[in-house]
Amino acid sequence: MKALTVTLTLLVVFISFGYGKEKQSTGSETCFLAISFVQAATVTVKLSNSGHDAHGVTIQPWLSDGSPRQKVLQIVPAGRATEVRVDVASETPAFGWLQVTEDGHSLKISATYEHINGNTLVSTPMLPVFRHPLSEGAVRSASKYSMHHGYTYDVFALRGALYVFVNLSDYPVQAGMCQENYPDCVLLSLPYTVKPHASVL
Question: Which tens digits make up the pLDDT trace of 30-39?
Fold first, then answer.
């Protein structure tokens, strides 16, 4: 099992991604995190194609335990825009995230979360998050020498933000976190096992 360390300043939660082997892809990927799967909830994904060719898009909702919900496939014609409504309703409240993959690089992607609060439909714009993969050499070296990847965030400057860890790899990773006033906080153990495509708040 691969290992990943996360180092924090001033807070015990964070935002980052866990990686396995670097995925070779000619497309692009956009993620929307910390989605509440509740009754009558949907995510409206807007896809705008500024390119000269049509592009295919896969929209995959994931529950926080890594379980997939029904994916949506969409073709966006060149020079056109379309909206896709993705069902994230659940009888039992749960958290999860949304993964949008494109077979190109010409789409502008945005999303709005919608749910019912009493008799009111509430719409909340969502911020996209993009993959920043480690190099293949860095991953191989970490695996060979049992190295930990560390990420440090000055969360004191982002008070009120929600921090999420998402494992984008196809195998479990171990994660840990610590808080410190200085960026040299180091963990001796990694107590959390995060399943493939699972997320931790």
Answer: 999 989 999 9
Give the percent of the chain with pLDDT over 70: 65
Domain boundaries, the chain: 2-23+133-200, 28-130
148 by Cβ neighbours in 10 Å (0-12 / 13-18 / 19+) ranks as middle
pTM above 0.85, yes or no: no
Two tokens, residue 128: 């996209």
Cite the beta strand spans of the chain per DSSP E: 2-3, 7-9, 16-18, 28-37, 42-49, 55-63, 72-76, 81-87, 94-102, 107-117, 120-126, 129-130, 152-154, 165-167, 173-175, 192-194, 199-200
**What's the topology of domain 28-130?**
Hypothetical Protein Tm1070; Chain: A (2.60.290)
